[in-house]
From TrEMBL:
Membrane topology designation: Multi-pass membrane protein
Subcellular location: Endoplasmic reticulum membrane
One GO cellular component, as annotated: endoplasmic reticulum membrane
Species whose genome carries this gene: Danaus plexippus plexippus
Source taxonomy: Eukaryota, Metazoa, Ecdysozoa, Arthropoda, Hexapoda
EC numbers on record: 2.4.1.-
Enzyme class (EC, first level): transferase
Transmembrane stretches, start-end: 6-24, 36-54, 60-79, 86-108
Stored Pfam families: Glyco_transf_22 (PF03901)
Name of the protein this chain belongs to: Mannosyltransferase
Keyword Aminoacyl-tRNA synthetase attributed: no
Amino acid sequence: HWYITQGLPAILGINVLPVVWALYKIISRPSENKMGLLLITAAGLHVLLHSFIPHKEFRFVLPLLPILLYLAQDVIVPWSRKAKKWQLYGVTMLMLVGNLLPSLYFGVIHQAGTLAVMPVLRESLTENRSAILFMMPCHSTPLYSHLHRNVSTRTLDCSPPPEGRTCESDAFFMNPNRWWNAEYAHRQTPSHLVLFDVLKGRVDSLLQGYDLIQRINHTQFPQGEVGEKVLVYKKRTQKIQADEIIH
């Protein structure tokens, strides 16, 4: 039910209202809406097949967006021909505001910290002498397309593990200190660490040789291993004054 209750409503936004209206009209009078019935059957099969796959993402139902928007206009256009002017203006404003405000919030503010951290890292890195460890869920940040630096990067792998084993990302968050000790027992530790604030209390001992150089807002709705802020630490080479830390 994830795609029905979360996936499709998330990609449709305010457009879910005319889509539900269109579905009701098609299902209540299928003989009069053969094309619409064909389209919702195709969309339904797409959702059904993807529902059997344990791994679910919003992008898996994005191909349905043109179909669903076509169904939405199929009820809005006939209605608009009979609607009064104030009704047309009202619905137009509702659709504009209902699309614009979420677009601005989710495109500029919500979970923006993992993108905003890349320029910070780029300015702090030294070519060929830096290495970054992203101590956060996999695929949280972009990498070289935004770094533009010849440095080593390390992210936690979340590929499906062999049966009976745990993926690296899960193993790290179950015991960060044990993972660190195993990973860096015989190799150089990274010059930069990037993590969410929810992890900090669990890795304080690992941060002893690092200084906080940036704290970036990420989201107002932290969940699980994703926190409100992104923290950037740099290996200590000289003492950093407190007023150099940017909040």
